[in-house]
Amino acid sequence: MVTASVNAADTNPEPTATPASMQVGEIGVLRSNSGGKGVFLCANKQAYDEYWNALLANDDEGLVELMLDGKLVPIDNGTPVRKLSYGGLFDHTCEVRLMKGKFAGKRGIVSLDWLVAK
């Protein structure tokens, strides 16, 4: 007798493509993988590194400073983006352009973990 099992992921209506499978030029959406309401768009790779340094150091003032300097912009989950580049083999980031919302047209760096295919 053969029995079939269905994993929760098999019935998940969320996008299933991995970030690496998205080609440059394709449209995807940003989504927090930690259950948060959104993610941060970083102005450049230096701002991305500064974001992670502040986050890991629990430096809330540093995060606020990055936002006030325009280096970090909060973006809601589900915001559509166009993938503009891939960071490379050892760089887990890519450049995207926001397609909708308050910051439509703005480009920046995000973690590949936050990018999912539509």
Summary tags:
single chain, 118 residues, two-stranded antiparallel ribbon, 7 strands, 18% helix
Structure commentary:
- With 118 residues, this protein is of the alpha+beta class.
- Helix content is 18%, strand content 27%.
- The protein has a five-stranded antiparallel beta sheet, with no helix packed on it. A two-stranded antiparallel ribbon has the order 2-3.
- The chain is globular, with a radius of gyration of 16 Å.
The count of helical stretches stands at 2
Query: CATH topology of the domain at 18-42 and 72-117, which one?
Result: SH3 type barrels
List segments where confidence is low: pLDDT < 50 over at least 5 consecutive residues: 1-17
Write down the overall geometry.
globular
Q: Pairing-aware structural class of the strands and helices? A: alpha+beta
Biggest β-sheet strands, sense, barrel: 5 strands, antiparallel
CATH architecture of the domain at 18-42 and 72-117: Roll
Rg calc: 16 Å
Beta content: 25-35%
Query: What is the spatial order of strands in the main beta sheet?
Result: 6-5-4-1-7
Helix content: 10-25%
H/E series, N to C? EEHHEEEEE
CATH class categorisation of the domain at 18-42 and 72-117: Mainly Beta
**Whole-number average pLDDT?**
84
> How many DSSP-defined strands?
7
Distance between the termini: 38 Å
The CATH superfamily title of the domain at 18-42 and 72-117: SH3 Domains
Layout of strands and helices, then pairs:
Layout: E1 27-30, E2 38-42, H1 45-56, H2 60-68, E3 72-76, E4 80-83, E5 93-98, E6 107-111, E7 115-117
Antiparallel strand pairs: 1-4, 1-7, 2-3, 4-5, 5-6
